[in-house]
Design a protein that fits this description.
By secondary structure, the protein is of the alpha/beta class. The strands form three sheets. Strands 10-9-8-13-11-12 form a six-stranded mixed β-sheet, sandwiched between helices. Strand 6, helix 3 and strand 7 form a beta-alpha-beta unit. The chain is globular. The structure holds heptadecanoic acid.
Length: about 280
């Protein structure tokens, strides 16, 4: 039995130090440029293109064939996707699953809707490897990961909601005024996998205060934390400090957002996944 864990690129990480890990790219489209969200994508170039382009920009999920290309050679596959309420990635992966199973009768393909994006997918993928490497049977791994997902959360502090609103992912009324005077929208991925804005804050410090309160309400008590930032590493580090002051020591990692998340979680935004 050879297994692979495959995530779409909303996870932001293309290497997690495991050779059974693959990603499939979402796409960011700026005029006639298609930024394919893989390890080679040039985020700075994309950002410059976004700033200078005056027309409508958009994103696209991976097609089924992009998933299948990543499946090749494995007979147990765990696919993790960005929330199905905001993207077609989950349904693409399911089409790929059917196609792959037609050709590979004994293959087992599990498609997991993260109901989230970014760092929460990192937590899910890391847990999947932990379970698979313990030698657990794949159906059992699937049951366990569904339980684990109930304990993980995603919160965010967004510096602008422009691209979310322009692409119909959030109401323009909610988006109005964010981006001015350092306003941050603090919110979370709801249990249904939708964007749930919770507070409007002025500046990172005030956003951290709000986030710490939300962590408390979730019953956070020192679980693993994964932070993705869009060009705001200092805020990510400062937030870790704030958490330490409130909750003591915990395991954490910090990385930059890749193309898809950088497009929607615009510059200076943070995405924070954690285990409650
Ligand atoms: O299929 C596509 O074109 C991709 C569309 C993705 C739309 C939303 C991505 C949001 C990414 C924003 C903050 C956290 C979101 C929480 C999700 C429930 C980043």
């Amino acid at each position: 039995m050879t297994y692979k864990v495959i995530s779409d690129s909303s996870i932001n990480l293309f290497d997690i130090g495991n050779s059974n890990y693959r990603t499939v790219p979402l796409h960011v489209i700026v005029g006639d440029e298609n930024f394919i969200d893989n390890k080679d994508v040039d985020i700075n170039k994309m950002q410059k293109a976004l700033e200078s382009f005056k027309g409508k920009t958009s994103t696209a999920c991976p097609g089924p064939q992009e998933w299948i290309d990543a499946f090749e050679g494995a007979d147990v596959l765990f696919c993790v996707t960005i929330t199905s309420t905001l993207s077609g990635s989950f349904s693409s992966a399911n089409i790929a699953k059917q196609m792959y199973k037609n050709e590979n009768k004994n293959a087992k393909v599990y498609v997991i809707d993260s109901l989230s994006a970014g760092p929460e997918l990192v937590l899910i993928v890391e847990k999947l490897f932990e379970l698979l490497e313990s030698g657990m049977d794949s159906d059992e791994v699937y049951r366990e990961i569904c339980l684990y997902q109930k304990k993980t959360h995603l919160y965010y502090s967004l510096a602008s909601l422009d691209n979310l609103a322009k692409n119909g992912r959030i109401s323009p009324i909610v988006a109005k005024g964010v981006g001015l005077l350092g306003i941050r929208v603090v919110g979370r991925a709801s249990d249904e996998g939708t964007l749930e804005p919770l507070d409007k804050c002025r500046g990172d410090r005030s956003a951290f205060k709000s986030l710490v309160e939300h962590f408390k309400k979730c019953g956070y008590c020192g679980g693993k934390v994964v932070i993705a930032h869009n060009d705001n590493e200092s805020a990510a580090k400062e937030f870790v400090q704030k958490l330490k002051e409130n909750f003591g020591e915990f395991k954490f990692s910090i990385h930059r957002t890749s193309a898809l998340c950088s497009y929607y979680a615009e510059p200076l935004s943070l995405m924070i996944g954690f285990e409650a």
